[in-house]
Amino acid sequence: MIDHIGFPVSDLARSRAFYDRALAPLGIELLMEVTEQMTGGHGAHLGYGRDGKPFFWIGSGRSAGAGTHVAFAASDRATVDAFHAAALAAGGRDNGAPGLRPEYHPGYYGAFVLDPDGNNIEAVHHGEPA
């Protein structure tokens, strides 16, 4: 089981504004801020999560690169839809509108957006087929 994941972003403030809004429908919020001083000059980091546990991190200090894919679990299809709308409103780019993806499995309902650095961010609900 993975405990947490993180990747660098090119503009921490811009990415914070995006993720604050995009992850809110999923019940994921900013829980921890680590300053560059705290890391000894190795960048600043923001930890997102729920229930007091940050599990998704973004940070400065390294070169950002597109191509990372992260999928967040959603409790239902409406939450996937809300994530997609919030992410687009926050400046994300559509990379796959909400819908069934039967090529993964019959009940796979997901939506994809590209974050400000081009990373593929997904919300998915594993439910019953329509």
TrEMBL record:
Q: State the SUPFAM superfamilies in the record.
A: Glyoxalase/Bleomycin resistance protein/Dihydroxybiphenyl dioxygenase
Top-level taxon: Bacteria
Coiled coil region boundaries: none
Output the InterPro entries linked to this UniProt entry: Glyas_Bleomycin-R_OHBP_Dase, Glyas_Fos-R_dOase_dom, VOC_core
Every VOC domain range: 1-126
Show which residues constitute the signal peptide: none
Task: Give the Gene Ontology MF terms in alphabetical order.
Answer: dioxygenase activity
- Enumerate the UniProt keywords alphabetically: Dioxygenase, Oxidoreductase
By what name is this protein known? Glyoxalase/bleomycin resistance protein/dioxygenase
Organism phylogeny: Bacteria, Pseudomonadati, Pseudomonadota, Alphaproteobacteria, Rhodobacterales
